[in-house]
Amino acid sequence: MAYITAKKLTVGYEKRVIGQELDFQIVPGDYLCIVGENGAGKTTLMKTLLGLIKPLGGELSYGDDLQANEIGYLPQQTPVQKDFPASVREIVLSGCQGRCGIRPFYNRKEKERAKEWMEKLDILPMANACYRELSGGQQQRVLLARALCATEKVILLDEPVAGLDPKVTMEMYKLIQTLNKEGVTVIMISHDIEAACLYASHILHIGEEIFYGTKEAYRESNAGAMFLNRRKGENAYA
Amino acid sequence: MLEKLVFYLQYPFVQYALIVGVLIALCSSLLGVTLVLKRFSYIGDGLSHVAFGAMAIASVLKMTNNMYLVMPVTILCAVLLLRTGQNAKVKGDAAIAMLSVGALAFGYLLMNLFSTSSNLSGDVCSTLFGSTSILTLTKGEVWLCGILSLVVVVIFILFYEKIFAVTFDETFARATGTPAKYYNLLIAVIIAVIIVLAMNLVGSLLISALVIFPALSAMAIFKSFKSVTVFAAVLSVLCALLGLLIAILAGTPVGSTIVAVDALFYGICALAGQIRRGVA
Q1: Cβ–Cβ below 8 Å for B224 and A128
Q2: Strand positions, DSSP E, chain B
Q3: Residue B148 resides in a domain
Q4: Which residue among A35, A92, B100, B171 is least packed, with the fewest CB closer than 10 Å?
Q5: CATH entry, A69-191, from 3.40.50.720, 1.10.150.130, 3.40.50.1220, 3.40.50.300
Q6: How far apart are CA B230 and CA B226, in angstroms?
């Protein structure tokens, strides 16, 4: 049974269609990479998956015990967060907020949970440090820990390596891979097509050409070949 | 000087002023951190001008208790401003500026056209700068202020974790099942209540100072949300007390004295933050 099934899904804002007729499904354990040109609708699709905006057409269903609000989310950083006075512990713990419902304070179980994830992601030593004084990679791990506090079923990562240097980028990819092997289903939005083909199990390519399938099939497909070649050309040029 | 102070403190109106001043300073600083971080620093200013406009309407209508009009109108505007925050046609800062200046002009116009008092500019000035109305509070007003402040503080403590989650990352909160919309509504209502209360203290032009200065001072020094919030509250209460005492002793205007003390402490905190960062 799949966690998320999309049938002829159309996404967009206020009647403005951005992504059309998408068919894909995400089953437990998958590592799906969503790739495509800028403006192809990656972010819109992501917001639709998170239930923040409604699909314009088609069908999006959640199954296998997954609720729409049980998707952990690693957003791109907003300007507000850059100078936000908050400790690492406070931010990670806020991932548990969805479990609280109307209860005003976090209980011991939720605090334990936050601590466990901080330990796993190697940020426990800086639990009391200020978020805005951390390095980019550390900040990403804090936000990842928060997402995992919300749920460990599915996490959705929006450009998780944007702005990180190559070494930290590698570490981040490795970390995500480890989580995926431990059973966390990963949906990642990325520009980095090479990395996507390296780590992902499935690829969803949106834009003029739409493709969904395993990464092996993607390499053989039209969309993949074009996209990969163009990227190579760009890189050679640079 | 101490004798003079003790002498003044015997009067009930001085005691009332101190109680109300401290309560309002406490409440306004609590939400200040959230508002500054949400880039809504100016909402205090905007809403207080709305309250001024509403007051003008109330006085034209010769209402005996203008609270009944001022409170709902201000709350409504707060809700509209905070709710449309992200996807509005007119962006947040422009919307606030528009509403604020519009209400100010409209209010003054009304007061001018339908003036009932002989000293119009005095009336306007006292609504804008807070005048001495804090020294003429009745027992009933002190009780009202006390109860509302208590409600604000209790709500803030109960919803502290939720306010943090929504302030830090609203999208994440919504995606993981926190009804951020309702919490934003709650924040809007509380801030409107605080502003209407605070108009008595510092007047509508200086309210922003009560909201922003303690929050900024605390943010310059402290590193976690909890310590920033607690320090802002403590500092705000201290500044209000100090300002009130100076105003009473030296006979200066209450509102602007408090704000001046707030500004002074911001300078000290900013300096302390710089030094601390330099050392670390």
Answers
A1: yes
A2: none
A3: yes
A4: B171
A5: 3.40.50.300
A6: 6
Nearest Cα to Cα of residue A207 among A233, A178, A227, A187: A227
Question: What is the pTM (predicted TM-score) of this model?
Answer: 0.84
Contact (CB, 8 A) for A73 and B176: yes
Q: Which band of pLDDT confidence, cut at 50, 70 and 90, is reported for residue A237?
A: very low
B252 lies in a domain? yes
User: β-pairing, A202-206 with A31-36?
Assistant: parallel
Q: What is the DSSP letter of B60?
A: H
CA angle A98–A102–A106, rounded 5-degree value: 65
**Is a pLDDT exceeding 90 seen at residue B269?**
yes
Residue B264 binned pLDDT confidence (cut-offs 50, 70, 90): very high
The Cα of B168 is separated from the nearest Cα of chain A by a number of Å equal to 7
Domains held by chain B: number:
1
Checking phi first, is residue A60 left (phi over 0); if not, alpha (psi -120 to 50) or beta? beta
Residue-level pLDDT at B91: 63
Domain boundaries, chain A: 1-27+53-66, 69-191
* Residue whose entry in the numeric block shows the structure tokens 């590698």: A170
CA A146 to chain centre: 13
Asked whether residue B278 is assigned to any structural domain, the reply reads no
Q: What is the CATH number of the domain that holds B128?
A: 1.10.3470.10
- Cβ–Cβ < 8 Å for B218, B228: yes
Q: Note down the domain range covering B152.
A: 2-273
Residues of chain A found within 8 Å of residue B226, distances taken between Cβ atoms: 87, 90
Q: How far is B108 from B205, CA to CA, in rounded Å?
A: 14
Q: Is residue B193 part of a domain?
A: yes
- Count residue pairs from A and B with Cβ separation < 8 A: 94
Q: Max alpha carbon distance in chain B (Å)? A: 61
CB contact under 8 A, B175 and A86: no
Share of chain A above pLDDT 70, in %: 90
pLDDT of residue A238: 41
Q: Can you tell me the distance from the alpha carbon of A171 to that of A194, in angstroms, rounded to the nearest whole number?
A: 16
Whether B160 sits inside 8 A of A104 (CB atoms) is: yes
Q: Rounded to 5 degrees, what angle do the CA atoms B30, B31, B37 make?
A: 120
